[in-house]
Each structure stands twice: as structure tokens, then as C-alpha cells.
């Protein structure tokens, strides 16, 4: 009875999968395909680079590193291999920047624009504000000066730090590009800058 135990599962699988017993045993003895061997070799390098990146590198960055190591692998193939190996990149933790500047109440100018965001001619009313953008180098701050008549950006400045010079440089650029407007009303929200 013990000799027949190994035959029954093979016979049953052969009937279900419609494969002969000889074909099944030939499949067991067959060496892996060349493509599967290449996939295994590539996956070793992918796992290494993925671990070195602290699980933050995705398909593009791992692919760039493979190219640097002279390992040829297409993006779709690499994505398939990483998906099969359950290598999912987790995004880097990035917290939003905080404004820790002091806002003196006595230094605030009155709101003359009074939410009237239109102008009758160019260079009469400018609006200034800034925002922050995530880049490969971290958070960068962008200050922009907008002409309310044409709705065009007339000055801008970008820095890695949020300082008063950021906004002043954008305003100076607008003045330099548009000349010295005589009847100009500049407006910005009250910030620490």
C-alpha cells in the first residue's frame, strides 16, 4: 500500500490538469528556463538595492541603479519582478514646513485693497504671496508677484529658506522687469516675512 501513495496524487493531478504522468515527471526534472534564471539573478540585485534604500526606492530608482551596474532590465519586467517579490516602496516621511516667525501687530499695514482683486490698467495693483514645494532636495519656498490687470506673474523668487528676502527679491524683480510704476498698490497677506 505504501508504494501506491505517491502514484495517486500524480494520477489525480494528471486527470485534473489533463497531463500525462510521464509529462509531469519530465517537467519536474527539466531545468529552469533561461529567462527565469535571469529573473532570479536580477531579483538578487533588486533586493539588495531595495534594502540599501531603506525600502524607499521604487521601480524608477531601482532601474537607474541597475543600469549603473550594467544589468539590462526593462521597466515593465522590473515592475513585475518587484510586484512578485512584494517589494513595495514606502514614501519618505515629509512633514509640512512650519512658520515660526514673529508677527508683530503694530507693523501690519491697513488692508487698502479690501478684497477688490481687479485693476483698470497694468501695473496698478500687484498681489504677492508665497508657497512651498516639495523637491528632491527637500522643501523649497516660492514667492510670486502677480499683476491683477493681466493676471501674469511679474516677479518671483525661490529659496530653501523662508525669509523676508524671499518676498523682497520677488518684489524687486517685479519692479526691475516692469520699471518703476508710479501709482502702484502692492498687497500681500500678513505673514512673518
In a few lines, what is going on in this structure?
With 193 residues, the protein is an alpha+beta fold. It contains six helices and four strands; from the N terminus they run αααααβββαβ. It folds into two domains: 7-84, no CATH class; 125-188.
Secondary-structure blueprint of this entry?
Blueprint (H helix, E strand, L loop, with lengths): L6 H11 L3 H9 L4 H19 L6 H10 L6 H10 L40 E11 L2 E10 L4 E8 L4 H15 L6 E4 L5
Parallel strand pairs: 1-4
Antiparallel strand pairs: 1-2, 2-3
Helix pairs in contact: 3-4
Description of the molecule:
With 193 residues, the protein is an alpha+beta fold. The chain has helices spanning 7-17, 21-29, 34-52, 59-68, 75-84, 164-178; strands at residues 125-135, 138-147, 152-159, 185-188. The chain folds into 2 domains: 7-84, no CATH class; 125-188. The protein is built from 6 helices and 4 strands, in the order H-H-H-H-H-E-E-E-H-E. Strand 1 (125-135) and strand 2 (138-147) form a beta hairpin. The chain starts with 6 loop residues before the first helix and ends in a 5-residue tail after the last strand.
Amino acid at each position: 500500500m505504501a508504494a501506491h501513495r505517491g502514484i495517486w496524487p500524480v494520477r489525480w493531478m494528471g486527470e485534473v490538469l489533463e497531463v500525462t504522468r510521464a509529462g509531469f515527471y519530465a517537467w519536474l526534472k527539466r531545468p529552469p528556463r533561461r529567462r527565469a534564471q535571469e529573473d532570479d539573478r536580477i531579483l538578487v540585485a533588486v533586493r539588495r538595492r531595495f534594502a540599501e534604500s531603506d525600502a524607499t526606492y521604487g521601480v524608477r530608482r531601482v532601474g537607474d541603479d541597475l543600469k549603473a551596474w550594467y544589468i539590462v532590465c526593462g521597466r515593465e519586467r522590473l515592475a513585475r519582478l518587484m510586484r512578485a517579490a512584494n517589494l513595495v516602496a514606502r514614501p519618505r516621511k515629509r512633514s509640512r514646513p512650519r512658520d515660526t516667525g514673529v508677527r508683530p501687530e503694530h507693523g501690519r499695514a491697513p488692508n487698502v485693497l479690501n478684497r477688490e482683486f481687479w485693476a483698470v490698467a497694468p501695473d496698478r495693483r500687484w498681489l504677492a504671496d508665497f508657497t512651498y514645494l516639495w523637491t528632491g532636495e527637500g522643501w523649497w519656498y516660492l514667492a510670486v508677484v502677480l499683476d491683477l490687470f493681466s493676471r501674469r506673474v511679474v516677479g518671483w523668487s525661490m529659496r530653501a529658506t523662508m525669509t523676508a528676502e524671499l518676498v523682497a527679491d520677488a518684489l524687486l524683480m517685479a519692479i526691475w522687469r516692469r520699471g518703476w510704476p508710479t501709482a502702484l498698490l502692492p498687497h500681500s497677506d500678513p505673514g512673518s516675512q
